[in-house]
Structure formats: C-alpha cells, structure tokens
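queue> pop job 88
queue> type: inverse folding (structure -> sequence)
queue> payload:
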C-alpha cells in the first residue's frame, strides 16, 4: 500500500543508509523485492545504492530467474559500473559463489570479466580465491583467455587458489590441460603456487601440488629459496600442526632445499620441550605398566576351570596363530615402550640437540608400541569370542582397520627415506592424513 501510494519511498534511506528495497533484498523477501522493482515507475536509486543492492542480492542468492531478469532489464547500467573499491557486480557474484548470476552477467556483459579492482584482482581471481570451481568453469567457457589474467602481484588463478588453501580448485586446475602453463609460473616476488601454498601452511594443497609431476620442486624465488626452504624459514621454534604437515608433505615428495647448510642457532631448553618430554614419558610408562601386567597374568591359565572367563587357553588350541600373535605383540610393545622411556630420560639432560634426537627416536618406538598394543588387543579379544563366529569376524575386521589407521599415521616416522615422489603408492596413502588438516578446503 505504501509504495503504491508513493513508489519513490522504496529508495528512501534510514539512518543506517538502508532503503526498504535494500532491506527486502537483505531479508530475502523475494516477492516483496520483486513487487518493489516492478512498480518503480522510473524512480531509481543512485548508482552506489544500486551496487549495494546488487551485492546483497548476490550474497543472499535471491536472484531467482524472475528477479535477475528484472535487475538486468531495469538496472542494466549498474552491471557495468564499479563501486568505490573498483569492483563490479560480476566480481561480487564470483566472490560469493553465485553461479547463475555469473553465467547471466557473462552472457550479457562479457567485458565485465576484464575489469580489475583497485588491487588488480579480476572477477576470476575472486572465484579462484574462494575455490568456486563451477564459476571458474564459467569464466573459462565464456572468456578462455581470462586464465592468463594476473593481478598487481603478477599472480594467476592457480596462485590465488594455492595461497588461500583451496584444495579442490587446485586439483581441478591441475587436471585441466589448458591450465598447465600456470603450474610453475612466478609472481613478482618469484613465488610459484607451491611457494605460496607453503607460506600459507596449507598441507593438503602442498600435497596435491607435489603429487603432480609437472611441478618443479627446485624452483627458487627471488630470495633464493625453494619451497622446502620457505617451509623451514616459516617454522617457528614451536611450529603448528599445519606447519609440520606442510613440511612433511614436501619431504615426502623428496623436495630439496637450496640453503641446506644454514647454521641453526641454539635455543634454550624451553617449557615446550619439558611438557613434551613429560607427556611422552607418561605414555611410555602407561604402556610399560599395562604390557607388564598382561605378561604376568595371562588370562586362561587354569585349563580345568569351567568358567567362561578362563577360556582363552582353551580357545587358543583352536587358534594358535592368534594366541602367538597376542603374546609376541604384547612383548614387542613392552620392550619398545621401555626403550622409549629410557630414551626420554636421556632427553632430560638439558642438551637441546640430544633432546630432539631422543624425542624423535622415542616417538618412533612409541608408535611401534601403540601398534603392537592394538594388535595384541585385537588378538586377545578375538580369542575370547572365537566361539561366536560373527562377533569374532567383527572384532578382526574392526581391529585391522584400527591398526591400519595407526600404522598410516606413524608410517612417516618408520620410513622417512622411502617417501619420495617416485613411490606413488606410498605417496598416495601417506597423503591421506593431510585431508581435513587444512582450514580452507
């Protein structure tokens, strides 16, 4: 009733600078927004307000076909204008992932894809930085040469996807034959996509890039650093988990550093190492205690007992292999954790280099001990329930899955020299821990 009485009221702004038309778009009231647009009678907001309304429409993705048609019809000039940051509506549609809007704008205003904002980012860069693969495909379909566009830092779309940790977009670009010229391109600072992914500590992206044989792992930027050098220089005295995984992904690909002989300065024995030593010592002690108890109180020693709880030895007659597995795994776990405990005690002498070496050795042994404990647990439970075939199979299958998961996580500690790019099977298996360890997918 209000805008029928006075259509221009739809463009009056409040103290926050919002008009009723803008608020309808922001609240996603599609029918109300459509009705306001259809009854403007020549009353239009200024260009800046049009831009804001278009942006909020794209952000809320309320541009249903009918509404988008009205916007393209009534505000055609707004689609080719830019706001105060130099961005046009196509940039915002690409940024928020509004595929239908991008497709329609490209059909009507193809030249908008070649308009950069104040920072030199083109609309396709916006889509790449957010990992919107469908929108990247639209740009390559309508404007194939847009893949060659660079921002003011001389970065292409693969640079942007790698720098922002967009793993799926990076994988798509590497699989696209038309984009192969981008894989080793350098920006104004000499950084390749691999350098930027390493700087951002995106282990999944680094793993995907190093998996591609076209990626040159030895390329150096203007500072004379390879990707591995960048990973080492970015690591603080207490690196985060993502930084460790990024470095590990490069080492698995057999990446080499150009600055290997750098002298490492000694740092004081900090509380970080003390806490780590105490934690590992606690784990080692617990494993020693549990395996020691099992070794001296093997269930089922009393063969004359008719109680079900004393039936492991009797079941072992039918399954000697699982019983032997149970005993051997337990003893390996006991001596591995005992050796790890001794190594951890050596790390408490105050020498940082000795502490680092001892901790690496202890972690490997603890990984072996935990794996053996898991095998012993699976074998022991399997012996207990061996008469129930269905339950025994379930225990065996779930145990094998658990053991495989533990082994996969600790494999880099056991086989550090074999995890190179030439071992494709190992590389594929060991790249799985990187999945989900990057905040941006």
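queue> result:
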């Amino acid at each position: 009733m209000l805008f029928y009485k006075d259509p221009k009221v739809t463009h009056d702004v409040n103290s926050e600078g919002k008009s009723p038309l803008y608020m309808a778009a922001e609240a996603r009231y599609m029918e109300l927004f459509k009705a306001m647009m259809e009854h403007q009678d020549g009353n239009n907001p200024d260009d800046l307000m049009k831009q804001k309304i278009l942006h909020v429409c794209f952000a809320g993705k309320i541009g249903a076909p009918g509404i988008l048609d009205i916007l393209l019809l009534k505000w055609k000039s707004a689609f080719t204008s830019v706001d105060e940051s130099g961005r046009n509506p196509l940039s915002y549609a690409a940024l928020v992932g509004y595929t239908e809007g991008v497709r329609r704008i490209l059909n009507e205003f193809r030249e908008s894809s070649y308009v950069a904002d104040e920072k030199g980012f083109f609309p396709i860069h916006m889509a790449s930085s957010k990992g919107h693969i469908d929108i990247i495909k639209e740009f390559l379909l309508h404007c194939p040469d847009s893949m060659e566009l660079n921002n003011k830092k001389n970065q292409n779309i693969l640079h942007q996807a790698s720098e922002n940790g967009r793993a799926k977009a990076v994988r798509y670009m590497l699989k696209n034959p038309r984009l192969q010229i981008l894989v080793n391109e350098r920006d104004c600072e000499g950084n390749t996509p691999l350098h930027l992914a390493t700087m951002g500590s995106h282990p999944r992206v680094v793993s995907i890039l190093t998996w591609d044989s076209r990626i040159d792992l030895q390329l150096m930027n203007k500072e004379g650093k390879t990707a591995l050098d960048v990973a080492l220089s970015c690591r603080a005295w207490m690196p985060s988990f993502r930084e460790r995984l990024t470095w590990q992904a490069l080492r698995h690909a057999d990446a080499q550093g150009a600055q290997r002989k750098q002298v490492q300065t000694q740092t004081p024995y900090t509380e970080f190492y003390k806490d780590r030593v105490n934690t590992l010592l606690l784990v080692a002690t617990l494993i020693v205690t549990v395996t020691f108890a099992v070794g001296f109180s093997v269930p089922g020693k009393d063969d004359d007992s008719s109680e079900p709880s004393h039936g492991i030895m009797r079941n072992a007659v039918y399954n000697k292999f699982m019983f032997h597995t149970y005993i051997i795994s337990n003893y390996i776990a006991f001596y591995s954790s005992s050796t790890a405990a001794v190594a951890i005690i050596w790390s408490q002498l105050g020498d940082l280099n000795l502490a680092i070496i001892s901790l690496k050795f202890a972690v490997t042994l603890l990984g072996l001990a935990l794996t053996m404990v898991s095998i012993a647990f699976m074998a022991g439970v399997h012996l207990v329930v061996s008469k129930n075939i269905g339950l025994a199979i379930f225990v065996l299958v779930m145990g094998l899955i658990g053991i495989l998961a533990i082994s996969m996580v600790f494999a880099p500690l056991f086989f550090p020299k074999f995890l190179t790019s030439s071992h494709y099977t190992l590389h594929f298996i060991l790249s799985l821990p990187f999945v989900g360890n990057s905040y941006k997918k």
